[in-house]
User: Which sequence fits this backbone?
């Protein structure tokens, strides 16, 4: 009778039972983020080898003691169930084995009829022959219902306890055994009393059968029953989402991300954005300099925070980098032989075209400085002068050749303002460029998956090795943010126009990091400055690596120079060919040449006057401050303004001269009376 019935059944379709939630793992196979199945179920991959051994023992002791020996049906349990049916006229216990329960899960039944039970028996026998014990147990662990959309012990363990099923306590394991028998009426988040009673019955039975000691069972009963579901892990939410979109249908995706570091940096970004103010977000990207693998990808200050537009991945947003691109201007100038770290540059008011006269962030000027100091202080005029020397079109071409997708305003031709951030770039591309500096100029491709191999295509280069090392050496000496130690990492900050973006990019030999903070909608945030807002995030992120930063090894052929005078003459000072940095010519406006000025220095009462008599106002036009005033060849005043005062010590003819920062001069001869 059984075999004709079995032969009449259609083949069992296991396709639906094989569907699993996609899970995204880190490089150590730690769960970063699971995704629901197409029908909204949480059915995570799990096997008997990945659950707690005590849970497995409790499950078999409670549900199917002879699982390892029967062919799919337990004759003893069937006879017991049949006797109860004959005695009471209804089914009291089904006598179901785990194999029969899997058959019911694979092919859901309707009602508790004898026909349904017979079908389960047939299917269980077929599944045993087709799959074997191990695969059947794996199917049960993946398909058992736990209430609501939860299917499988892994989804239930994460949802109710916030932990993987490999690390269950005795009380938690007992609850996982009890729930599938009546998943909706025993849901601990809705019926905690019923859930506790069912758990305790499992503990009592498994203790009687020797899986637990009485003391272990008593201690397990004292454990609390969860009264609410916990959210599933959502680390690297943006990276996980992008990986699933790139490879739809893959059951398991392994990223190169370090889950521990990712969790720490997500907390750091959320904390700093909250302190910075409402509506602000933050992003951090960490790259392994060896091969460009992503070690951490923090796309926002909270993926589920709508007030900060957390769903937007700011590592892919095009933003203005501010001064964060200056190191690449210097690198191109060093590579081209136009400058050296000790080359003297002028940080003075300068006009580079009819309308472009850049100023420094603090509206002051430092005078003559080395290229090293100019980059460490992020001075604007020297950066623009170097950009003028290398050419903005050549600079943009170099960035694009290195693989950066640069966006210019309205596709305008590149101009000198690109040196100060007048373009658009993503955080990801900026991180790649900085990793290129750490790698001797070779820009890596981004590797996001654990199994990805290094690209074998054409090499992308942002700089030659010596120029890249010069930049690393300079940036390692950049003054650190408050309460941070100096000379640990090479780093640069940036602040975009209007205080919309604050950046900090840094690297050592092993790792490159870029941190960004701002509003995703691009609104200005007064006072949002890279050094104050982003640099502390960068330094804290490096501290969370748990290792000491390592400097970049020095390549061969580095031109060492203690001072500019020890450089070859062409490298001692940057020359701007044919360009007048000072604007209008220097000229003494007062006193005029040949003037006779009565200061009361002559006459019958002159000798009674105090030595510090009346002063003579000095005024110049044009030139590049600071200005040095001389009388008869002797300096009498130096000032950043074009006005000064000199107190004569007597009457007579004098020659007054003025020198500006470029060496221009003017002189007048006057007579004081």
Assistant:
């Amino acid at each position: 009778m059984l075999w004709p019935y079995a032969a009449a059944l259609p083949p069992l379709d296991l396709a639906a039972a094989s569907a699993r939630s996609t899970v995204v793992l880190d490089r150590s196979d730690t769960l970063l983020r699971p995704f629901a199945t197409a029908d909204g179920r949480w059915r995570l991959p799990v096997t008997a080898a990945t659950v707690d051994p005590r849970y497995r023992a409790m499950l078999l002791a409670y549900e199917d003691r002879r699982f390892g020996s029967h062919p799919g049906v337990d004759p003893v349990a069937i006879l017991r169930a049949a006797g109860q049916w004959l005695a009471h006229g209804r089914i009291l216990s089904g006598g179901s084995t785990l194999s029969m329960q899997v058959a019911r899960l694979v092919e859901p039944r309707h009602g508790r009829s004898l026909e349904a039970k017979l079908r389960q028996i047939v299917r269980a026998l077929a599944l045993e022959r087709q799959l074997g014990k191990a695969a059947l147990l794996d199917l049960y662990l993946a398909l058992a219902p736990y209430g609501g959309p939860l299917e499988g012990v892994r989804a239930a363990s994460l949802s109710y306890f916030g932990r993987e099923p490999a690390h269950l306590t005795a009380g938690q394991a007992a609850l996982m055994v009890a729930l599938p028998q009546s998943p909706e009426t025993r849901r601990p988040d809705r019926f905690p009393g019923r859930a506790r009673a069912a758990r305790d019955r499992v503990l009592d039975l498994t203790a009687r059968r020797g899986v637990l000691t009485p003391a272990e069972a008593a201690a397990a009963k004292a454990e609390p029953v969860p009264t609410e579901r916990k959210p599933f892990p959502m680390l690297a939410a943006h990276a996980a989402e992008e990986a699933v979109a790139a490879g739809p249908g893959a059951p398991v995706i392994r990223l190169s991300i370090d889950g521990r570091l990712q969790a720490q940096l997500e907390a750091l970004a959320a904390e700093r954005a909250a302190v910075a103010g409402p509506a602000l977000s933050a992003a951090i990207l960490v790259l392994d300099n060896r091969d460009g693998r992503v070690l951490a990808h923090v796309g926002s200050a909270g993926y589920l925070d709508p007030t900060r537009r957390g769903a937007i991945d700011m590592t892919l947003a095009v933003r203005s980098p501010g001064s964060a691109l200056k190191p690449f201007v210097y690198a191109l100038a060093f590579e081209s032989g136009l400058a050296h770290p000790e080359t003297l540059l002028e940080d003075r008011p300068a006009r580079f075209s009819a309308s472009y006269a850049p100023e420094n962030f603090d509206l002051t000027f430092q005078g003559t400085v080395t290229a090293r100091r100019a980059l460490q202080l992020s001075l604007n005029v020297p950066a623009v002068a170097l950009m003028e020397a290398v050419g903005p079109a050549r600079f943009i071409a170099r960035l694009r050749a290195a693989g950066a997708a640069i966006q210019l305003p309205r596709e305008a031709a590149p101009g000198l303002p690109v040196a100060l951030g007048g373009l658009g770039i993503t955080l990801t591309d900026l991180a790649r460029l900085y990793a290129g500096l750490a790698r001797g100029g070779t820009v890596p491709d981004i590797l996001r998956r654990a199994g990805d191999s290094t690209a074998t295509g054409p090499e992308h280069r942002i700089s030659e090795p010596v120029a890249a090392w010069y930049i690393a050496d300079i940036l390692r000496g950049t003054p650190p943010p408050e309460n941070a130690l100096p000379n640990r990492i090479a780093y640069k900050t940036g602040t975009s126009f209007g205080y919309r973006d604050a950046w900090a990019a840094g690297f050592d030999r092993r790792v490159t990091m870029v941190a960004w903070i701002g509003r995703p909608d691009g609104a200005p945030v007064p006072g949002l400055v890279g050094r104050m807002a982003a640099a502390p995030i960068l330094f804290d992120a490096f501290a969370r690596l748990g290792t000491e930063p390592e400097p970049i090894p020095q390549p061969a052929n580095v031109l060492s120079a203690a001072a500019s005078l020890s450089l070859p003459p062409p490298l001692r000072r940057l020359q701007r060919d044919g360009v007048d940095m000072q604007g209008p010519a220097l000229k003494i406006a007062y006193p005029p040449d040949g003037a006779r000025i009565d200061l009361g220095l002559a006459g019958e009462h002159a000798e009674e006057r105090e030595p510090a008599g009346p002063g003579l106002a000095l005024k110049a036009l044009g030139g590049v401050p600071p200005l040095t005033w001389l009388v008869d060849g002797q300096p009498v005043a130096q000032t950043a303004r074009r006005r000064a005062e000199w107190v004569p010590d007597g009457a007579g003819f004098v020659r007054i001269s003025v020198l500006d920062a470029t060496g221009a001069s003017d002189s007048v001869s006057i007579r004081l009376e």
